[in-house]
């Protein structure tokens, strides 16, 4: 598929979407043929295809894999070997995904034309929205978009998150003016690597243009909430800038200063007064409706782990502004769009776009089998058009950039079809127990870091009896909480031995140091996760937890302590038995 075929906008984009979804089966088969034609001779694929370019050979011989199996091939390219190890096209960059492998960031190969596929999906969003909310071209979008730190692979390829790659690309920077995608934030603010300067200026630009703003958003709900919290701390400075027509001295990035001085043409004391009066209100309930009175919807990912932020966004919008989830995407591949964008976030289904990659599905019984360690036989895979509504699947992709039958790790439930393209509810990321921002910590990683940390206790005759965890998003930013039950091994009589604060703080520190790369990046660099907390609970708490869960229908024979807890009775029980809380006192180590 050449890039030109992907350049659809407006009504054209919708017509093309109809065609694609009506011909979903044919499109998928031709995508697979094209991928095989291009990548069949690559070292990886040829190992299985052995010279064949046949779709049926692919289907019977190419194994279903996880990251660990493809990682050595990706690493060789990152080290400077030829792209033909994986792909018939030049690998132009490595996309750092939020998944980690052995604590290290995962790198996904990407080719130049992947940018066209991403743009194709972005171009569908506004035509879809326009069907439900007209006149979105009569105002602006205040989208808080950020780039993240990037590095180079040993061979000099850029290694960065997919959105950073997109915002830095000419597809974004040199986009032609489109009234449907007119942002309040200047590019310089989005592309400023310093998060505080970027956030300050994006909020300032949004406030100055508050009467033009028709939609508010961020990619993930967590980022939007952090921006609101930033506004809470900085509105006095922002109002001062608007009143005086000067830009705060803390904005030192020269291109950003220049761009912002263009946006703030003259002092505006009246606007500053209006904003101040709103920010001084006793409660910030509904603040978004007051500050941006013409907003018709708020856009952010609120499905999957981001659903935990729905109540907070409803608070700031007083439940009056629709919350819209438009798309489902990853570093490996952009997957699909929400064709019914005004539905409530918990009801969202994404329609997979058959031209993005070749999609297959591992059927899952009970929602979550088989485990990620289990080998999946090729003949178990179900193709895109054959999924059954109501059933659960794990998503498997074969991409143009060289991932073949790669398990993305997402668990989806088929809910229906748009023409012949299936629609899915995002259920969860397999094995992920904790997530605040883009971090995804699985049970194994959590266990490993608990094991490393509890060793510190043992030197003081203290033993960790049981633990569980919770993602606390009542603070902004949210933070990881571990509930620990500790016993004293030197004397059982001494139950109430005072806990040594420094020791427990060291344990918090050790936990953070052994969590994955993305967690440490969010904590230390992006500050999008707060310090980890250990809540030490009274002895006997985990027995009480077991009693509670069994009384709720759990089986006593199969009982296992859950390694994470969601809000509800179990959490209340744990919180009611907390002896003391301890926090990590410095940022964990993080190197690019
Ligand atoms: P990354 O590889 O870091 O780009 O993260 C991609 C992952 O984020 C996906 O595989 C999903 O687990 C998650 N994700 C992306 N979009 C959505 C969405 N709309 N709803 C829920 N989870 C999502």
TrEMBL record:
UniProt GO molecular function: acid-amino acid ligase activity
GO cellular component term of the entry, any: cytoplasm
Every GH3 middle domain range: 350-429
Domain GH3 C-terminal: 444-566
Taxonomy of the source species: Eukaryota, Viridiplantae, Streptophyta, Embryophyta, Tracheophyta
Similarity comment: Belongs to the IAA-amido conjugating enzyme family.
InterPro entries: GH3, GH3_C, GH3_M
Protein name: Indole-3-acetic acid-amido synthetase GH3.9
The entry's keywords: Ligase
